[in-house]
Amino acid sequence: MSLQDVHQLSDDARKVFAPTSSFSWNLVSTRQTQFAYFDELLGRPVWKGRKVLDFGGNVGTFLESSGKNVDHKDYWCIDLNPAVIAQGRLRYPRAHFVHFNRYNSQYNPHGVRHLPIHDCGVKFDFILAFSVFTHVDEKEMIELVGSLRRMLSTDGVLAFTFLEPSFDRSLSDPRLPRGSTVFLNLGPRRNNEAVRRARWFVLIDDQLYIQPGDTLCHQTRTGKPLESFCSFFTAEHMRSLFPGATIHPPVQREWQHCCILRNSSP
Fold this sequence. Notes:
Blueprint: H1 11-14, H2 34-41, E1 52-55, H3 61-66, E2 75-79, H4 82-91, E3 96-99, E4 124-129, H5 138-149, E5 152-162, H6 193-197, E6 200-204, E7 207-210, E8 229-233, H7 235-241, E9 246-248, E10 257-262
Parallel strand pairs: 1-2, 1-4, 2-3, 4-5
Antiparallel strand pairs: 5-10, 6-7, 6-8, 9-10
């Protein structure tokens, strides 16, 4: 993401986009790797004719990265940010873009708390979420994953990414020095034994919270609008939260692990 990417928004969409001077990161995604990432991890499935929900899909760059593999009419995107939804509708008029007006301090600070996910009126063969649950706490992740699983077709699959703090990012990007884990970026805090042993933790701007329970849930906490909220979970902890899931290390030079839940999973 880049602050310069705001120029991609149409004039109408830009009206509901926060001024770029108000935060240090951007709400517009330019990522073009989502399709290749999920396609590899899901074993190169047949996408044609299958219903796809891109949860937190931003302006719909998944469609662009999928080429002709996904029919636009079979693609739904749900996102918290009304600006990117407006842009997606203009860019991909045959696809379905739905604004999820749920409160989130980082992405939708004027949203409604506890709002359920919109019922799209279809069951999905694939529900994908790239870098979505990296911005919520454990409680909200569990709630939303449960809601999404109920939206799957009989043999549907849900795949979502998470950040494993001990992953050495140089394995995905050889340009980085060996040992480039999340811990490396924590400064002196990386030597804190409680951080090293934590099952999960959250960084809000530069404030570190170790296994904070429910105290940081967006739906009960009032955060600073457009603050940076990043959560990190160990692979072992994700397995305990979602029995029956398969946990996969990053592919396609990405840094995020993937949790895959099939509709037959317990």
